[in-house]
Amino acid sequence: MQIIEIVLYSKKGQKRTLKFEVGRTNIITGGSGTGKSALIDIIEYCLGRDTCMVPEGIIRETVSWYGLRIKYSQGEMFIARENPDLGRASTNSAYIEEGELVQSPLHAPEANTTNEALVDTLSRKIGISPNLHTPLQGQTRPPLEANIKHALFYCLQQQDEIASKRTLFHRQSEEFIGFAQKDTLPYFLGAVQEDRLAIEQNLTRSKRELKKAERALKEVQLIRGEGVTQAVSLLAEANEVGLTNLQTYPSELEAQIAILEKTINWIPGEVNFPEVDKLTQLQLKLQDLKDNFNNKSEEIRAAKTFTSEAEGYAKEIQQQEFRLESINLFNNIQTDVELCPLCSNKLDTPIPSISAINNSLSRVKKNLEATIRERPRLREYIEKKEEEKQKILDEINQINKIIDGIYNEGQAARELRDLNVRRSRVIGRISLWLESVNLNEDYSDLEQAVEELKEKVSNLESQLDNEEKELRIQSILNRIGFQMTEWANNFDIEHSGNPVRLDISKLTVVIDKVDRAIPLYRIGSGENWVAYHLIAHLALHKYFTKQNRPVPRFLFLDQPTQVYYPREKDEKLLGSIEFLKDEDREAVKKMFDLIFEVVKELEPNFQVIITDHADLKDESFQEHVTERWRDGKALIPDSWIEGTEDIKTKNAKKSGEKH
C-alpha cells in the first residue's frame, strides 16, 4: 500500500488534491501554520482510526470529507471518511471504491460503508491474515487481533515523536497502545506463523475432547476396578435384611453378580400376625400389578420401536421410489433390450425391460402405501396400551394406600413395612449397580482415543512453543540490528561504532557497549534521537518490504530537521539551511541522502513522505519536492475561506494548528 493522492473536499463543493509518486521520496516544504502536520492525522483517520485528530481550526471548519487514493501491487483503491461535525470526535460514515484504476471523485462522495468494514477490508487487502495474540498466563489484558490500525504505528512519525527520546513508535505513549505494539509487532515481523490462530483454536477444541474422553475412560475403569468391592458390600446388605443367607462370599465377580441378580426377584413373604393375611394378599396382588405394569411398559416400548422402524422403512421406500422415478431414460420406449440406452452399444447382459422397472416401482409404491396405512393403527394400539398402563398404575397407588393404612394400625405392621422398605432400598441399590456393570464392555477404543488426543495436543502445543517464537524474534531483530548498526556508523552519531538493536520488550533503541547497554532515553541531544528514530524505522521498513510483511509500504516523517532548523526564524530563512554550522548542514544532508538511498534500493515497493520547513538547495532534494507551501499557499486554499474574513484572521487560524 502506497499513497497516490490525499484529497480534501470542502463544504462548498470544492476539491483539493495532493499528488504523490509511489516508490519515491515525496517532500512537502513550507512555512509554519500551513497544515503540514495535519496530513498524518488525515491519513490515519482515513485508514480507520476511530477518532479524528485533525486539529480544530480552519481545516475542520472548511473540509467535509477527507480522502486517500492508494495503490497496491495489484489495483488501486479510493477511501474516504466524513469530517465529523464541529464538537464531535468521530463519525462512522466511510466510502470505499476499488478497481484496477480508480480516480478520486470530483465531488464529495456519499457513504457506502462503515469504518469497521473499512478496517476489515484494508487489513485483508494488505495481507493481514486471521491472527490473535493471547497474553501469557497471569497477564490481565485481553487477547488482541492485529489489523491495519496496528500496522500504521510503524508508518507514521509526528513532529513530537521523531525527536523523542522516550517513545520510538507512533502513539506509543498513549494508554494501552504500547502494550498493543508489544503484542502485535512479533506478528508483523513474521515471528508468529500465519496459521497460529487456527492452531490455537484446534488446540482448544482438542483439549476439550481429551478431557471428555479421559472422563469417560475413568468412569469405565472405576466401575470395573471397584466391581468386586462393591458387589461384596451389596451382598452384605442383602444378608443383613434377609434377602440372602450367605456364610461366605464368592471371590469371582461373575458369581457375585449372579447372586445379586436373584435377590432383585424378591417378593414379600408371609407374615403371621393380625391383618397379615390381608396384607399378604395385597402385597401379592401389588406384585402381580407391578408385573403387569412392567409387561404393559414393555409392550408400549416394543410398539414404539416398531413404529420407529416402520417410519425408517417408509423413508427408505420413498428414497427408492424417488430414485426410480428420477430415471428419465425410460420415458421413450426402448425396443431392443440388448442395446445400452446411453451409448447404444451391444450389452453382454440384456437390460431389464421398462415394464419390469415399472413393476418394481409399483411394488415399492404399494409397500409404501401399506406402511403409511398401518401408522394410525399403531398409534391407536399405543394409546390403548397407555390407557391400560395408567389404570394399572392407579390401582397400584390405591393398593399402596391400603397397605400403608394396615402398616399404621400397629407396631408389628410398622416393623414389617420397615423391613420391606429396607429390603426395597437394598434391591434398588443392587438394581442400579447391576445396570452400570457390563462385564463384556471393551474400553480399548477409549484408551486408544485418549492416547491419540494426547499426542495431538502435544503436537499442537509444540507448534505454539513460545520459546521457539522468542528465538525467531531474536533472530529477526539481530538482522535488523545489523542494518541499524551499519547506518549508525555512517551517520557518525553519538555511540556509533557499537552494535545497535531494537528492544521490543521496552519499545526502544539500545546501544550495546562493551560494559553496558544504553537505551535511547539515556542518550543526550535531539540530533541523536532523530537519527536513531530514522535508522530504526528505515531498517524496519526495509525488513518489512524484503520479507513481504503485511505493513503499508510508506513512511511519513514530519519535521525531521527540527533539531537543526530554527522554526522561529522561518519567515526570514524561507527554508534555507545555509546559515547552519558545517557539521549541522552535513548531518541534514546525510539524513536525506540515507532516505533517498533506502527508497532507491527498495524501488518501486517503498515510499517516503516528508513534511518539513527545510528547503535544501541540493539538487537531489529539489527533485523530490512535490509541493512548496509559502507565499500564501497551504493545505487549505484561500478560496475555501469565507470572503468576509480578512487574511490576518485566516493566518491566525492557520498558525493555531499544528505545523
Automatic annotation (TrEMBL):
Keywords noted in UniProt: Coiled coil
Classification via Gene3D superfamilies: P-loop containing nucleotide triphosphate hydrolases (3.40.50.300)
SUPFAM superfamilies linked to this entry: P-loop containing nucleoside triphosphate hydrolases
InterPro entries, per database record: DUF3732 (IPR022205), P-loop_NTPase (IPR027417)
Sections of the chain in a coiled coil: 196-223, 368-402, 436-477
Quaternary organization: Heterodimer of SbcC and SbcD.
Protein family membership: Belongs to the SMC family. SbcC subfamily.
Protein name from the UniProt record: Nuclease SbcCD subunit C
Originating organism: Domibacillus antri
